[in-house]
C-alpha cells in the first residue's frame, strides 16, 4: 500500500503538523522516539527541522550516522506512540517494547515503521551551533513514501478514523486530524 | 474571553501543529501573513521556530522591529487566512483587505488578531546564518494568551467546530483539529 511521493510534494506529508516517530540507526543500534516538534523547512530540495533533546539516545545515533527518518503514525498505533515517547532506547530495543514492526528504508539506514501512513527518509545537514544551542536539527529529505489509501494524488484524503494522522496535545491525549474545511 | 497563559505552557498552544497568522509592525507599517511552518523550540523560556520567505514583507518588519506575534486562528476565519496567505502587504493594509480586526499586544508592537483563539507574543532571537541560509527564524515567547472557551486549565478543549484550530493542507483546504483520542 506504499507508494513513492514526489520529493517536491514531500513537505505536504507534514505540513498539517502531525506527531511523528523519529527513527535512527548506527551500526547494530537503532532507536525510535516520538516527536511533535518538527516542521517543513523548504520545498525543493525538501528539508525539515526538528528538535531533539540532548539526553535522547536518538540524538547520538543521528549524530553518528548522519541519517534519520520521520514516520507519520496513524491513529491505530497511538498507544505505541506514547510508549515510544515515554521510555529510552538505551535500556533495550524500543521497537519490540512498543510492539512495532519495521521495514528497510531505501536511502538511509534508519528503519521505517509499520502502521504509519507516511515516511520521510532524511540526511542530516550538520549545523553544530543550532544543535548545541537549540537542540535544533535540520535534514534534507532524500526519499518519501505514503500509504496510497490516504495520500492520493499528492493530497491527504482521510476517511476511516484508524488511518487518520494525529496531533499531540499533552497527558496521553492526541487530536486526530479532523474534517476537511473548504475556505474558498 | 482572553486569559493569560502561563509561559511554561505556551508551547501547548502550537504543539498540535495548527496553521498560524504571523503579525508584525515597525513604525507605521504593519503586516500579517499565514504560516504553517512553525513549531515550538523550547519549554522554559519558551521559544518558537518559524520559516519566513525572503520575499515576505513580514520579514522586513520583523528584522527591523525584532518582534512578532503568532496568532492561532479559529475555523470561523478560514477565508481570511487564505486571503492573508495569498497577497502581499506591500500593496496596502492587509488586515483591512482580509476583514480582520486587531487589538494591542502587551509586550510587543505587533498587533494581535481578533477571531483567533491563541496568541504568542515573541521577541526575535537574531540568528543571521539561519535566517539567510534557511529562512529560519527563532523567537522567545514573552507573553501568551488564549480564548478561555477552548483553552482550559492549560489544555485545548474543542467542542464547537467554529472555534477549532486548523491545519493547512494545500489548495485552499484545511483540516480542522479533530476529536480527542485517548491512547492510554
From TrEMBL, chains A, B:
It comes from the Bacteria. Gene3D superfamilies: Electron Transport, Fmn-binding Protein, Chain A. Residues 12-158 form the Flavin reductase like domain. Keywords: Flavoprotein. Its cofactor is FMN. Belongs to the flavoredoxin family. This is NADH-FMN oxidoreductase RutF, flavin reductase (DIM6/NTAB) family. It comes from Formivibrio citricus.
